[in-house]
Amino acid sequence: MIAIPMMFFGMCLLAGCSHKVMITAETYTLEAGRELPGSPETYASFANAELAAEAVVQAEQVDAGKVGTYEAAVVLKGKEYPFTVEVVDTMAPEVLQAFGMQSV
Measured between alpha carbons, how far is residue 1 from residues 4, 8, 9, 13, 17 in Å? Predict the structure, then answer.
């Protein structure tokens, strides 16, 4: 039983296993007006903490104030792992009283 996992692990080492980064969801949904998280671990899982520390999020095209679909990526050692950011507006506007400025 243990021979198969060990064989797979060995083959992975020899081949230079490319699954160091795995995007956790193809689409990340962001409420309009909110800040896009800057942590790569929000969008991907990593083989180890060192890789996570080296990764960056490339999302300059995302306009969090405008509803739409945008391309972004987690970048590690020059390789891009793309995902989509969908900015949505699902929160109803908040109405304030004219004099008390309290939420209604």
Answer: 6, 12, 14, 20, 22
* Strand 27-31 relative to strand 79-88, pairing: parallel
Nearest-angstrom CA–CA distance, 29 and 52? 21
| Sequential pLDDT tens for the chain (104 residues) | 444 444 444 444 444 455 589 999 999 999 999 999 999 999 999 999 999 999 999 999 999 999 999 999 999 999 999 999 999 999 888 777 666 666 55
The verdict on pTM exceeding 0.90 is no
